[in-house]
TrEMBL record:
GO terms for biological process: protein transport; small GTPase-mediated signal transduction; vesicle-mediated transport. GO terms for cellular component: cytosol. It comes from Dictyostelium purpureum (Slime mold). InterPro entries: FAD/NAD-bd_sf (IPR036188), GDP_dissociation_inhibitor (IPR018203), RabGDI (IPR000806). Belongs to the Rab GDI family. GO terms for molecular function: Rab GDP-dissociation inhibitor activity. It comes from the Eukaryota. Pfam families: GDI (PF00996). This is Rab GDP dissociation inhibitor.
Length: 452
């Protein structure tokens, strides 16, 4: 008789591993399979030999140049993203107690590109007064605006100053405080972290909440709002996989999917290597059901190995983010640059890994990265990939196939986690409440008793 599971998860990308962990903690019987022989899928971290093999193949006899250093010293992310220290991913890590499997280090700085150079992002009223991004006549309006945002609390009308943020547009709120276009550019893209300017016509409440999240994240470590896992982002899928296993989840790598049949009895039959199991629901990345997704664009990512810090950044900074807002380089979407180095255990000392990403807009995608390349200076090695961005056609509620979106070009995990929360709600019919799960608390208490 076929073994039956509540959920079968296909692919071990970060989104799939988070969902697998969440559902296992909920008490669901989960089987997790991947055609690859490693965790992480698209969101894996590769050593130098793996990186060379993936992008260069037999070039240079299949071996990276010796001057790059030892392969084992590299843990390079295929999809780079920083973690907002008060953001959704941290809340998910705490909700599931996955933090015990990971170590993080704060990112040194956050920059925005304006007027042909990079400048540190001011995010408080005090920084607004000293920032060279802000003109003399702009400092006071910006300070007042930041104070308003910092003081705003949804449930305290006295902090609203008579403004109805859920009704007025963000554009109107900027006008109310006299915020000009150049300031709007960095607020919307480098603090509120929007991908484009469509937010200006949406209710101001969402942008104010995003700004508060950025400020709360910055307040945790003061250097920047971002943290990053030691040894790269590939540690994240493995940590959630470990969580799932603790709560009864079963993992199988190197498992090609040969057949998926939808039975009249409501069960889904999945066959791999001649063996068939059944389940009630499937969660997967877009590659497993190409007929159930639609292409929405392309993303270009360029992994660059540098011998020196980024031009214009503080020389003490060994990690940083740069956002190049679309208007600054006459584009429709932003360009993101993430830089990490030896303190995060991703490359040898003296090297820097800079990963540039954006949404493709022309027939010459790499040329679109020119403004970022100019900031990076001399690039020792470069590995470029262009991938399609897919979204599911349906919500999965009828056919019980819940498909994640592809990873976008943003340099943070908020959109990734929003997709996870949306899939979780469609699967379970309830919102994901990001407090420590009762089953986690129970296990922590039992472990405490055993230790005592």
């Amino acid at each position: 008789m076929d073994e039956h599971y509540d959920v079968i998860v296909l692919g071990t990308g970060l989104k799939e591993c988070i969902i697998s962990g969440l559902l296992s903690v909920e008490g669901k019987k989960v089987l997790h399979m991947d055609r690859n022989g490693y965790y992480g899928g698209e969101s894996a971290s590769l050593n130098l030999n793996q990186l060379w093999e993936k992008f260069r193949g037999e070039q240079n006899n299949g071996k990276p140049p010796a001057e790059l250093g030892a392969s084992r010293d590299y843990n390079v992310d295929l999809i780079p993203k920083f973690i907002l220290s008060s953001g959704l991913l941290v809340k998910m890590l705490l909700h599931t107690d996955v933090t015990r499997y990971l170590d993080f280090k704060v990112v040194d700085g956050s920059y925005v590109y304006q007027g042909g150079k990079i400048q540190k992002v001011p995010s408080t009223d005090k920084e607004a007064l000293s920032s060279s991004l802000v003109g003399l006549l702009e400092k006071l309006p910006l300070r007042k605006f930041f104070i308003y945002v910092q003081n705003y609390e949804e449930n305290k009308p006295e902090t609203h100053e008579g403004l109805k943020l859920k009704e007025m547009s963000m554009s109107d709120l900027f006008k109310k405080f006299g915020i000009k276009d150049n300031l709007i550019d960095f607020i919307g893209h480098a603090i509120a972290l929007y991908l484009d300017d469509s937010y200006l016509n949406q209710p101001a409440f969402g942008t104010v909440m995003r700004m508060k999240l950025y400020a709360d994240s910055l307040a945790r470590y003061s250097k920047s709002p971002y943290i990053y896992p030691m040894y790269g982002l590939g540690e994240l899928p493995q940590a959630f996989a470990r969580l799932s296993a603790i709560y009864g989840g079963t993992y199988m790598l190197n498992k090609p999917i040969e057949n998926i049949v939808f039975g009249e009895d409501g069960k889904i039959r999945v066959t791999s290597e001649g063996e068939t199991v059944t389940c009630d629901q499937i969660v997967c990345d877009p590659s497993y059901f190409p007929d159930k997704v639609q292409k929405k664009g392309k993303i270009i990512r360029s992994i660059c190995v540098l011998n020196a810090p980024v031009n214009g950044a503080d020389k003490k900074f060994e990690s940083l983010q740069i956002i190049i807002p679309q208007k600054q380089v006459k584009r429709e979407s932003d360009i993101y640059v993430g830089v990490i180095s030896a303190p995060h255990m991703v490359c040898p000392k003296g090297k820097f890994i800079a990963i540039v990403s954006t949404t493709v807009e022309t027939a010459d995608p790499e040329k679109e990265l020119a403004p970022a390349y100019a900031l990076l200076g001399q690039i020792q090695e470069k590995f470029v990939s262009i991938s399609d961005f897919y979204e599911p056609i349906g919500d999965g509620v009828q056919d019980k196939i819940f498909i994640s979106k592809s990873y976008d070009a943003t340099s943070h995990f908020e959109t990734t986690c929003e997709d996870v929360m949306d899939i979780y709600k469609r699967i379970t019919g309830k919102d994901l409440v990001l407090t420590v799960h009762p089953n986690i608390l129970k296990q922590q208490q039992e472990q405490g008793v055993e230790e005592n």
